Amino acid sequence: MRLKFASYNIHKGVGLDRRRDPDRIVSILREIDADVVALQEADRRFGSRESVLPRQTIDDHTPWRPVAPAMMPASLGWHGNVLLVRRDIEVRGVQPVSLPTLEPRGAVCADLAVEGLVLRVVGMHLDLSGLRRRHQVRAVCDHALEGGRVPVVMMGDLNEWAPRGGALSAFAAPLRVLAPGRSFPSRRPVAQLDRIVVSEDWDVEDHGVHHSALAAIGSDHLPVWANLSLPNF
Q1: Given a cut of 70, is residue 85 above it in pLDDT?
Q2: Is the domain covering 2-229 a CATH 3.60.10.10 domain?
């Protein structure tokens, strides 16, 4: 089994040209063409937390469906986090993951089934504070790894500037933290803020940062991706 995973902080749909352009974000996502995408900042921050990507646009013009707890009627995700899952993948369940923080932060955890095989995917957006990031990583791992062994992929904007150590060290072995490359800021990226974390079940065939003319201006982050396979399932 081979699947492509991607993570993208879409900055509420606002690009470097200061325009909010949901269609541009959708075009970038279609360029990446992943099976499962974790989006961050998919909802506006205040008020009704309205989604910046119209649900109708996703339904009519993409191969994915949004997967997140329905917490607010106008929102697409949970604290801006949502998973986009290709429609031929079965969704067995989805839960919000509350993170210890003073800021409105959270993560989304979904159990998916591909050809009868269950796997768990988490999308997250962690705090700016290093101490809180460590606590949040532990909370995400506790949630993702409970209930028996399944292949796990966790991904998102971890807000960790250190190339190793820091909050990344809270992802204990045998979890592996992938560094697809520099993804922030999108115009001239210098930091690897966006990461993909995998359980020992996965073989990592390839990973990287998605560079394109649209992605260079679509958000302040570039998308990251990984091609993964499950040789022993």
Answers
A1: yes
A2: yes
What is the structure's pLDDT at 27?
Answer: 98
CA distance from start to end of the chain: 8
Q: Which pair of tokens denotes residue 83?
A: 């998973």
Q: Residue 72's pLDDT band (boundaries 50, 70, 90)? A: low
- With tokens 């933290």, the residue in question is 177
- Residue 92 near residue 83 (C-beta atoms within 8 A): no
What pLDDT, on a 0 to 100 scale, did the predictor assign at position 132?
A: 87
For the question of whether the overall pTM of this predicted structure is more than 0.90, the answer is yes
Is-contact 123 205, C-beta < 8 A?
A: no
Radius of gyration of the chain (CA): 16
Q: How far is CA 2 from CA 94, 215, 233, in A?
A: 22, 25, 11
> Of 145, 146, 98, nearest to 124 (Cα)?
98
* Dihedral over Cα of 58, 210, 6, 43: its sign: negative
